[in-house]
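Quick one: co-fold with L-homoserine.
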Amino acid sequence: MDLPPVKIGLLGLGTVGGGTLTVLRRNAVLIAARAGRRIDAVIATALNPRKARDIDLTGIEIVDDAFTVADDPRIAIVAELIGGIEPARTLVLRAIHNGKHVVTANKALIAQHGNEIFAAAQARGVMIAFEAAVAGGIPVIKVMREALAGNDILWLAGIINGTCNFILSAMSDGGREFGEVLTEAQRLGYAETDPSFDVDGVDAAHKLTILAALAFGIPLQFSKVYVEGIRHITREDVQYAERLGYRIKHLGIARQVESGIELRVHPTLIPQAQPIARVNGVMNAVLVRGDAAGPVLLSGAGAGAEPTASSVVADLVDVVRALTTDPENRVPHLAFQPDTLEDLPILDIAEIETAYYLRLLAADRPGVLADVTRILGDRGISIEALLQLEHHVAAADVPIVILTHRVKERAMNEAIVAIERLDSIQGRIVRIRLEEFA
Ligand code: HSE
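Sure, here it is.
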């Protein structure tokens, strides 16, 4: 432990930046023993200087201009904890240009600009570490990239947005409505600045993009993810799903099939007996299926100051340990060596195969169900369960819930159009995908 401390600079002293400093200080001795030398923050910039005053900043120079941090010759590592695309992207590229390693918690930046950033880092021989970008305190990047390196990853599914999980859990356990729970999630600080990133699925799509690249050796392809949020899920859907033995979770799913890769984010019915169905509230979980390891479930806090800081600090330790390692002997950014990344096709949502929950409002008269089941049957769609529910809208119409077996989404789209055309069916059909993860 005779080596001098490694000096680092922080971009951002908000929730994650503050948490990182707290953990670095509280566990300084343990961290130094693990890294082989001390890790000292010497310079930082705060977008919100008022918030930064709540943090112990002893020994840290606070500057207004973030580029002063990226250019500081004393520091070996820049921790980018400001989030968003700009100025984060320009700052990270500048730090790389200056030969600094970068630790980032920025999922949007990695998902949308990771290919450019990793190429620049590789050319300059520096490391980019991003454990905190996916699922906060859960060490899922490390597991996918290192612990499962011997596996052919078949699929993964994750509860990777805590806000959506909090809302769906409260709708299920408390029988509450979407809007009311969203307001509470914002008050508790779970939601992004713009909560549509959470409830419309964008945040989960960023995280899924990163996990899929690590799993399948493909470039980051955020624009090809099918994205659906949870705004259309009603309390009734949550309750009907439960009567049938399922819970509705907002999942990011990536699956390797013969024709390519499925990349999709949407609400999903999953069996109540699946352990991941019991991950509730703001918690996150990722279920990975490796051909050798079988199913591996990781769960924990997906956000928050110290859980996210846990991942940032683990990355700092990793980078410090590898400072003297030749770049070609370091763990590759996306798990696979860059020259082996494959351009496997990402399937259009119409080409995916899954089971479905359908809810329709039908006239309560003879022959209506026969018409619906004929339309499904004509398209090779087999029914798994059917529930005719009590009247709740108009005396003449009843809600019907149908669970189907797996089928191509294209066939289901055609069936839904045909069913909605029936005179006996009112309004639009609610369709929620269903996965057994057997
Ligand atoms: N808004 C995110 C969530 C925070 O709800 O999961 C962590 O990325």
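If it helps, The first strand starts at residue 6 and ends at 11.
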